[in-house]
Amino acid sequence: MANASTNTRTNASANASAVDTMPAVRKRHKIRVSTGERVFDTLNILFMLVLIAITIYPFWYIIVMSLNEGNDAMAGPIWFWPRKFTLINYEYALNNPYLIQSFLVTVARAVLGALLSISVLLLAAYALSKRYLKFRKTYIFLFMIPLFIGGNVVTNYLVIAKFGLLNNFLVYILPGAFSFFFMIIIRTFIEQLPEGMEESAMIDGAGYLRVFYHIIIPLAKPILAAMAFFVMVSAWLDFSSNLFYITKKSLYVMQYWLYLVTLGQSNTDFMDAMKVGAAIQNAAQGVSAQPTPQVLKMSTLVIVTLPLLFIYPFFQRFFIKGMLVGAIKA
Amino acid sequence: MNVTKFSKQYVLHLFLIPALVLTLLFNYAPMFGNVVAFMDYSMFDGWMGLGSPWVGLDNFKTFLSEQWFYDLALRTLTYSISILIFSFPASLILALLLNELRNQLFKKIAQTVSYIPHFVSWVTVAAMLYMFLSVDMNGLVNNIKVALFGGERLIFMQDTKLFLPLLIVTQVWKEMGWGSILYLAAISVIDPHLYEAAAIDGAGRWRQMIHVTLPGLVPTTVVLMIFTLGSLFGGNFDQMFNMQNIVIQDQTNIISTYIYYQGVKGAQFSISTAVGLFGGVISFILLMIGNYVGKKISNTSIV
């Protein structure tokens, strides 16, 4: 979708035929291609290659290090390939009970959060897509105000605490379930649907509920998939709701757990999180081939980060479509 | 059937209830929670702690009379504006350059790769940064530095002067590609006839880019700019929090991290809410100024 829509400009596709019909233009164009433009094209491609390298290499480096023996990694720089290959870092990282637990919590909040979110959004979007809805402007105004003024970290915390949502799984899915921006995107989509089906169903005596269930939900599936993907991505990457509202270990999400392992300022957090205190002590003294903290951090990083990076290209078409609908509206 | 009657459309109003309830609970309640800034708040005084004594503007007077607040506010703005100055043009330039690529397959690959870092959390980015900058042999940057220039291995993350450049680098690295999507979308809806007309007038690709593509991007840029202005005074909590460490924390705090440490961690609810509210008001004013300027220069606005 993005590529189909973004290549309007290049000579290769759409414009080629137009240019063909105008020989004079084409000729002039050719002369220009053969001069400074070629230099520009080459530089542009080089620039893109550098950019790709800068984007990919950090991930590659982490993977390489996570596959290298800990003590060996400390012995000298490693660049592109593991020097002493081992899988033991992953064995240790995956043996950690917290990892499995936090993975389950993260998946649960992503899936449930997405389901709740698209239900709430679709219901509201459908109602607001009706131009004749009473108080329509008032509703939209109510939903819009929080975009401009709102609470902050502390007032959010106080409110969540007073609602009894501290150390409660619901704090992951409730506060972010409704988003004005997403709702507008879905509403725009619904407004573009052909009205005939809905009207004839209404004439046959169907109420809003049946129309919603039998017509709107099936037709809105593409946009709902895109929104669900967005919600799940942000749930997967969210770290601060855990930081602010959760202190119970069984409710930690992967990102927070990763934070404790890699960035946590206390060593006990790390040891505790990894449950490998003794083994690491041995490794630090060079007693055995156990992983060192550094390589364990790397393998954890890979485990938490990589899944999404492999999934996202398959969803690229969806989310870019979603972005574009929103962008055109905005 | 007369659908404009309330009794005929009450189902639609019921459909709005979940969204309204969520908005009231999680947007409006915290908004009204700002009254805490005018109280000497204790969680246990009366219903929702709202029985706490009123102290008027005392909390504001407290921090407005102290130097640390001005340092904090100035640092927040400096960080936000510096990041903005680099990250905004980066996305725009990337979009323009991607648009000039002739090979569609290569363009697609470059685009796909450029989105990758957006799907990585700030925890991961900060963790990677700390590892690359570490002093030991895992520290990629020190490895490169020593291999190329020799000399000492440096402790980067304890240097407060390096903190802002690192904020900029990580922000640009993470969001440049994602930010370019909107510009590419805006480029795709520019009328192709404009390019043909420019070509007939003898404009090469460079001049087409300057005189057709760039002007076509002005509305998108202005809208994005207005929204960014509104968030200048808040700052990116996740990025800041994860990149800080104990050694440099006090010298690098911005408003959002400050009120987290003071309010949530330190239970100084009233004073930190007051600081947060002050920041919120400034953000709102910036948003409105941006909106006004946007209207003046290109007839684009968000409200």
TrEMBL record, chain A:
Biased composition (Low complexity): 1-18
Cell location: Cell membrane
Residue span, ABC transmembrane type-1 domain: 103-313
Topology in membrane: Multi-pass membrane protein
One GO term of the biological process aspect: transmembrane transport
Keywords: Cell membrane, Membrane, Transmembrane, Transmembrane helix, Transport
Family matches, as SUPFAM superfamilies: MetI-like (SSF161098)
Source taxon at top rank: Bacteria
Regions that span the bilayer: 42-63, 103-128, 140-163, 169-190, 211-237, 295-315
Positions of region (Disordered): 1-21
Listed GO CC annotations: plasma membrane
PANTHER family for this protein: ABC TRANSPORTER PERMEASE PROTEIN MG189-RELATED-RELATED, POLYGALACTURONAN_RHAMNOGALACTURONAN TRANSPORT SYSTEM PERMEASE PROTEIN YTCP
Family statement drawn from the similarity comment of this UniProt entry: Belongs to the binding-protein-dependent transport system permease family.
UniProt protein name: Carbohydrate ABC transporter permease
Organism classification: Bacteria, Bacillati, Bacillota, Bacilli, Bacillales
Automatic annotation (TrEMBL), chain B:
A family per Pfam: BPD_transp_1
Main location: membrane
Domain called ABC transmembrane type-1: residue spans: 73-290
One GO CC term, this protein: plasma membrane
GO BP term, pick one: transmembrane transport
PANTHER family: BLL4140 PROTEIN
Protein name in the entry: Sugar ABC transporter permease
